[in-house]
Design brief:
15 helices; disordered N terminus
Length: about 260
């Protein structure tokens, strides 16, 4: 009987490992979060104290946009393993998406304490500070993210936006220049450089940046609005109206293109 029990336990362990492995491979092969969720559900039933399973199921929920379910799984993973920096980072990003900025910053703080070389945590904490208007604090985090990962174009764009918010337009342009040097197809960098040049009164140069941004991302209504404003300031009213009409067709519910 004792030998039989040990055999059963061993078989159950093999079944659990196979279930987890199947969950991971099906997710990779088919890219289907739904299928992954079902497999993780079964795996968690067999091993309810496995923090990694909750973390991975939380990631699947996040991909589906089921943020509250994802929050629950990341929180449970943290209860089971309070030293996993990744869980704090993922949960912090969810809080940020849900505009629960104080909670997001708390999680990014803990993620950084546990993994001080995590450039992404600094970047997203910077984004969160920017969201609440703490631009100087955001810049400090972007500085650190750039020190850790100097070839990430998006961080330069983010820092440029913070500089722009502070009226430090030349610093902003330098960051957008650097982002474009790293990633010449970065639509955000061209768009934001166009915005900043427009504020500097460099309307023709701004239009050239908006042109490139539109080539890369033809569905961003705000780029058409920005280019329309630049055309208007150059008294090219027909082109301005054409851009406003395009912006309205993309986002008819937005009032901005109607009133610029």
């Amino acid at each position: 009987m004792q030998l039989l029990s040990k055999t059963c336990i061993f078989a159950l362990g093999l079944l659990l490992c196979a279930t987890v492995a199947f969950a991971e491979t099906t997710g990779k092969q088919h890219g289907s979060p739904i299928q992954t969720l079902e497999d993780y559900d079964r795996a968690i039933l067999g091993d309810p104290d496995n923090a990694e399973l909750y973390k991975k199921r939380g990631t699947a929920y996040k991909k589906l946009g089921q943020y509250n379910n994802a929050l629950g799984d990341f929180s449970r993973a943290i209860q089971l393993n309070a030293n996993d920096a990744g869980c704090y980072y993922y949960r912090g990003n969810l809080y940020r998406k849900l505009r629960r900025y104080r909670r997001a910053i708390e999680d990014f703080n803990q993620a950084i304490r546990l993994a001080p070389d995590n450039a992404r945590a600094y970047n997203y904490r910077g984004i969160t500070y920017k969201n609440i208007g703490r631009y100087q604090q955001a810049i400090k985090d972007y500085d650190e993210a750039i020190r850790l990962d100097p070839e990430n174009a998006d961080v330069y764009v983010n820092r440029g936006v913070a500089y722009k918010k502070l009226g430090r337009y030349q610093n902003a342009v330098k960051d957008y220049d650097r982002a474009i040097a790293i990633d010449p197809d970065n639509a955000r960098a061209y768009h934001n450089r166009g915005v900043t040049k427009k504020k500097l009164g460099q309307y023709q140069s701004a239009i050239e940046d908006y042109d490139r941004a539109i080539q890369l991302d033809p569905h961003n209504a705000r780029t058409f609005i920005g280019r329309g404003v630049a055309y208007k300031n150059l008294r090219q009213y027909d082109l301005a109206i054409k851009d406003y009409n395009r912006a309205i067709s993309l986002t008819p519910q937005s009032a901005e293109a109607y009133i610029v």
